[in-house]
Amino acid sequence: MVIEVEGLKKRFGLNEVLHGITFTVNNGEIYGLLGPNGSGKSTTMKILSGIIPPTEGKVVVEGINVAKNPIDVKKIVGYVPETPTLYESLTPVEFFSFVGSIRRIPKNVLQERIEKLVNAFGIKEYMNQLIGTLSFGTKQKISLISSLLHDPKVLILDEAMNGLDPKSARIFRELLLEFKKEGKVIVFSTHVLALAELICDRVGVIYNGNIIAEGSIDELKKMAKEETLEDVFLKLTQAREEVAHIVSALKEAL
Ligand SMILES: Nc1ncnc2c1ncn2[C@@H]1O[C@H](COP(=O)(O)OP(=O)(O)OP(=O)(O)O)[C@@H](O)[C@H]1O
Questions:
Q1: Ligand 1 contacts CB of residue 40 (under 6 A)
Q2: I want to staple 94 with a disulfide (CB 3.0 to 4.6 A). Which of 90, 129, 164, 198 is the partner?
Q3: What is the ipTM of this complex?
Q4: Can you give the residue range of the structural domain that contains 156?
C-alpha cells in the first residue's frame, strides 16, 4: 500500500478538526475524499502532502512518515491546492522554470514535460503573460501542470478540476486514468459527485472530521440502499431531511 493513514488527528489551537481519520490507498488506485464544506478534506490532503503537520496519528506515504520527513514526502507528491497559489508577477514560463529549479529537474526533461502539458491544456498563448492577468481556469491549469513537472508517484488533488472547461476537464480526467495505469496513486477531493463516480475506485466519506463510510461507489450504494451517489452522500451526511425542509421553506417564502 502506498498511503497509510491511521488515527490521524489535527488540532488548530484548541479546535480539533480531524478526530482519528484512518484509510489506505494502494498502487494504481484513485481514492476520492467526499464530504460537506468544512468536514476536513483539505486539512487531510495538506497533511498527506507534507504542507502541515499532523497533531497525532500515523501518516505514511510510500514508506515515508510525513511527520518526520515532510521534505522527502514533497519530493514524491504532486499537490494541487483548492485555490491556485502562484506568483502573480511571474509569467508561466518563468514560474515553471522556477519550479523546475527547486525540484532539480534536468532542463531537457523539464522542457519536454512543460511542452506536452501546455499543449494538452491549450495554454501556449499565455505562456509569456503575467500570471496575475490570467483567468481563474488558466491559473488552475498552471497549478496542475506545476504539480506534475517532477513526475510524482502520488497526486493529491484538492478540487483540482474547479474552473476547468469541459474539454480541459476531460483531458485531465483521461490523464488521471493514464497515471493510474502507470501505477501512480491519486487522492482526489471533489463536490462533483458525478466526477467521483466516473474516476474513483474507492471513496471515503468524511463528515465532521471522521470517515463515516468507505468503499467502492457500488458498495456505498448497496450499504446505504440508495440508487445514486448523491442520495448516498445526503443520507450519510444527514443532509437529506434538512434539504427537504429548506426547500419547502423556500417554496413557501417565494
Ligand atoms: N489554518 C487553520 N486554522 C484554523 N482552522 C482551520 C485551518 N484550516 C482549516 N481549519 C478548519 O478546519 C475545518 C476543516 O476545514 P477544511 O478546509 O479541511 O474542510 P474541507 O472539507 O476541505 O471544506 P471545503 O469543502 O469547504 O473546502 C474547518 O472548520 C476549518 O475552519
A1: yes
A2: 90
A3: 0.98
A4: 3-215
